[in-house]
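Support reply, case 0932

Customer input (verbatim):
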Amino acid sequence: MKTTIEELVAFRTVVDTGSITAAAEQLGHTVSGISRALSRLEQKLDTTLMRRTTRRLELTEEGAAFLQRTRAILDAIDDAEEQMAARREQPAGRLRVNAASPFMLHAIVPLVPEFRKLYPQISLELDTDDLPIDLLERRTDIAIRIGPLRDSTLHARPLGTHRLRVLASPAYLEAHGKPRKVTDLADHALLGFTQPESLNRWPLRGENGIHGDEWPIAPTLAASSGETLRQLALAGAGIVCLADFMTAADRASGALVQVLAKETVDVRQPVNAVYYRNTQLSARITSFLDFLTQRMT
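Our regenerated output:
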């Protein structure tokens, strides 16, 4: 059987206080309880640690050697506990965050300098994937998910919503004309996603409501990344439907302009920071979640 921390503490305290009675008082235990702990420790080690007389306790040679190791072990535990307490006050350590590349580039990266200034002891590791990943397999602390959540094993912190808009560059519209109604899209180059297919259903009301509040498109040019589609739209390659978080600056500068605004339904994609429900949240995870929540909601 292995020795326990309780037995080591009892042994050290008896030595430091000079008696079993004094050790029991200091630790809040009974005298018999401390005596049994010492006996168990000696049995497990198969050696005598202390010689007990009616007047005092005296360490054996083996006891003196073991006491040195005991102090080192208990001091290391105390140091570890102090470090954990310090981390709660000043979060530290590596934090792995995963997000789709557009959200990482346009929503998270601009906030990194401020976060690093607030939490200089946190080492950020930023990974991008355009499709959902397995958090455990990739050893990821937090992942940003856009759209409805389907994984019930994940806990989510809402970070807000972003509206979808149909956009094109002025150069494209000048060359190909501006669609006046939804059915005009059939005559245009449409930029869409390779997957999931749901992203190729644009929030548009068709004539007489034949498509409800969604208009399915067949992409002329498809890509897996929203950032790739954004760059294609900026280059004048066609019309695209993207979330506000990646196009706000483009719309403000006029690099992209909204088309079919009256026909566009106010559809907003939810954005959540997710982590496993059975995860014991460390201070570094909590600090990042709180930081994002304050700046994005």
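We compared this against your earlier run and they match. Two observations from our side: The chain has a mean pLDDT of 87. The radius of gyration is 32 Å. Please reopen the case if you see a mismatch on your end.
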